[in-house]
Design a protein that fits this description.
Helix content: 40-55%
Oligomer: single chain
Structural class: alpha+beta
Number of helices: 1
Radius of gyration: 18 Å
Number of strands: 3
Largest sheet: 3 strands, antiparallel
């Protein structure tokens, strides 16, 4: 293997690693925010809308509103 190919493969591996870390962190944040459908005030999240972004809906943002305090959260799901 020549050094140019090795460096390209190394950069590709780093990009893939960063992407995997990012998607895992988003999932952890979403799980914490979602809290099994309950807001911190004790109310329940009520679905408001979903917005797709990117080519072929690569990511979808879901918006929920608390039925008790009115707080709005936005959770993102990435196509995998």
């Amino acid at each position: 293997m020549d050094s140019d190919l090795k460096s390209r493969l190394f950069v590709l591996a780093i990009v893939v690693l960063i992407w995997l870390i990012f998607t895992e962190c988003q999932g952890a944040i979403s799980t914490d925010t979602w809290n099994h459908g309950r807001c911190k005030c004790g109310g329940h999240w009520v679905y408001q809308q979903a917005i797709s972004r990117g080519y072929y809906g690569m990511s979808t943002r879901y918006m929920y509103k608390c039925d008790k305090c009115g707080r709005i959260v936005e959770l993102t799901s990435y196509y995998q």
